[in-house]
């Protein structure tokens, strides 16, 4: 079949397509040739580099071989000359040996003289150091006596720090605040120990009851063991059990009772408040600030919780209520830098106290604990003794978890005292007894409400009675 004739346009299009295809193939061929040429050049250049490197290595090895041979020959000649000289002059060799022995003897004598001189100097320095230490101890003792006289005079002029504890209504507030804990423990005692013999079953039941009151197994075992020593197999009433428990609890907590006197010590006194999120640090600082303002103290509050804008606002409100200035920075700023500036300001303005609120930290968050350690380091650049107080604020509602918080913070931040908050909102108030037993740390305040006056100085006797549901006037 004869192919149809193509029009001029079709012929032109086909020619153009054939031309374009030819050009494409030519370009591809040129690109292939270019790449082949580049590969050949690269191969030739690599071969040249390898030849040059091989030649350089050959020259280096030849040079080393030459030097080695020269050194060997020189050593051989030197050895030969020495041998010939030694053989030719035996007397000289013996003289050299004798001279060397004499030199060693003189060196040993010189070393002995040096050691004796060093021992003499060390003994003299030790005697001088002991005399200096003795003089420093005498001065320190005199300073302590003077400080004791000053404190005694100041104490005679100042009000009793336990005035608040002794004031009317203190026990009532504490009892009300601990009502959930005391009602749980007291009601159980009333139901289980009404004219009952304190035998093994009763002691086991009492131990279980104390454990469920969040005092922990260690405290519960200690208390029941002590009760068994004096009351085992005797008939007891629920009131007698309460009185005995109050005595045991007070005995555990009395060594931890310490009303902190912020007016004492250096100026400015730097106080850090630490604790986990939601423990009540900011509120506690505000309440303490209100108390200090009433006592005439000049202080500055530091909003060191720069992670939470709400914490800064909350502390500002407390500062305004107390009439105490608050230093803060924008959210996310460096807390350590802010503390540094606050201490500088306190020194410049002759303030008495720097109260620092820190960011809430979970005890298992290493990076936050590291930041807290940084705040301590920065504060010590201005005062090597700062912070003078590190108060750990604990939330009573967390129960036994508070023990692990104390353990974590006391090693990281060198905690010097404790405040237990929110005792009015939980039946786990017994955990404070477990903390007092496990940790040798002063307990300064307990919080039993939202108002400033609801932050009360800790009293072991009052706490023990209130916890077991006794009246203030009942004997413990």
TrEMBL record:
Q: Which GO terms describe its cellular component?
A: cytoplasm; plasma membrane
GO biological process entries: SRP-dependent cotranslational protein targeting to membrane
According to UniProt, the reaction catalysed is:
GTP + H2O = GDP + phosphate + H(+)
Name the segments for region: Disordered: 1-125, 138-166
Q: Which UniProt keywords apply?
A: Cell membrane, Cytoplasm, GTP-binding, Hydrolase, Membrane, Nucleotide-binding, Receptor
Residue ranges of domain SRP54-type proteins GTP-binding in the record: 442-455
Q: What PROSITE patterns is this protein classified in? A: SRP54
Basic and acidic residues bias: where?
A: 11-120, 138-150
Tell me where it resides: Cell inner membrane; Cell membrane; Cytoplasm
EC annotation from Swiss-Prot or TrEMBL: 3.6.5.4
Please give, as recorded in its UniProt entry, the membrane topology of this protein: Peripheral membrane protein
**A GO term, aspect molecular function:** GTP binding
Q: Where does GTP bind?
A: 275-282, 357-361, 421-424
Record-linked InterPro entries:
AAA+_ATPase (IPR003593), P-loop_NTPase (IPR027417), Signal_recog_particl_SRP54_hlx (IPR013822), SR_rcpt_FtsY (IPR004390), SRP/SRP_N (IPR036225), SRP54_GTPase_dom (IPR000897), SRP54_N_sf (IPR042101)
Q: Which HAMAP family match?
A: FtsY
Function recorded in the entry: Involved in targeting and insertion of nascent membrane proteins into the cytoplasmic membrane. Acts as a receptor for the complex formed by the signal recognition particle (SRP) and the ribosome-nascent chain (RNC). Interaction with SRP-RNC leads to the transfer of the RNC complex to the Sec translocase for insertion into the membrane, the hydrolysis of GTP by both Ffh and FtsY, and the dissociation of the SRP-FtsY complex into the individual components.
Q: How does it assemble?
A: Part of the signal recognition particle protein translocation system, which is composed of SRP and FtsY. SRP is a ribonucleoprotein composed of Ffh and a 4.5S RNA molecule.
- Give the family, as the similarity comment puts it: Belongs to the GTP-binding SRP family. FtsY subfamily.
Protein name, UniProt field: Signal recognition particle receptor FtsY
Recall the taxonomic lineage recorded for the source organism: Bacteria, Pseudomonadati, Pseudomonadota, Alphaproteobacteria, Hyphomonadales
